[in-house]
Amino acid sequence: MANTIPTKGNLISIRRTLTLAHLGFDLMDRKRNILIREMMNMIDAAKDLQGRIDVTFREAYAALQTANITLGTCADLARNVSVDHSVSIRYRSVMGVELPIVTAEDRPGSVPYGFAFTNNAFDRAATRFERVKRLTHEMAEVETAIYRLAKAIRKTQKRANALQNIIIPDLNGKVKFITEALEEKEREEFARLKVLKKRV
Hints:
By secondary structure, this protein is mainly α. The chain has one domain (8-199): Helix Hairpins (Orthogonal Bundle), CATH 1.10.287. The protein contains three helices and two strands. The protein has a two-stranded antiparallel sheet with strand order 1-2. β1 and β2 form a beta hairpin. The radius of gyration is 33 Å and the shape is rod-shaped. The mean pLDDT is 85.
């Protein structure tokens, strides 16, 4: 405040900045609340998804175990399954935070292995693992979104705290300092005019 010159122009400028700081704090507060609400929805979805993944993984490994028992080891058959390159990622924005949308091409009816050396246990295992893959895509989307939202919430909270605890009090102090200095100048001017009036 020592380098703040107490003029009416500075007072008007600082009051304008103070109004913008209050507006910025309100916007940060709203943004934080929206991001928190979005993250809570994602956390609920993640819990539900985690339960479904656990069940599907158990079913898939049980089916694979049955296939291994009936066919011997399935490693040679599994090598025939090609790597899936159909996963694509798009983004949606929530209050400036880019959240991923993971999509994968469904290939219904395409079987990457021959039927001569397999049985229905192997088909069941392949179907279950296909479901695991789809759920894993969903889980990756949700977990990445939660991570990004948490990071954005932390950053927004820091900015809101800086505005509320540092910038706004500093600007209020400057407004008070300049107002008091200008009032003091007015009192001095009034006293000087009174003395001049008595002399005349």
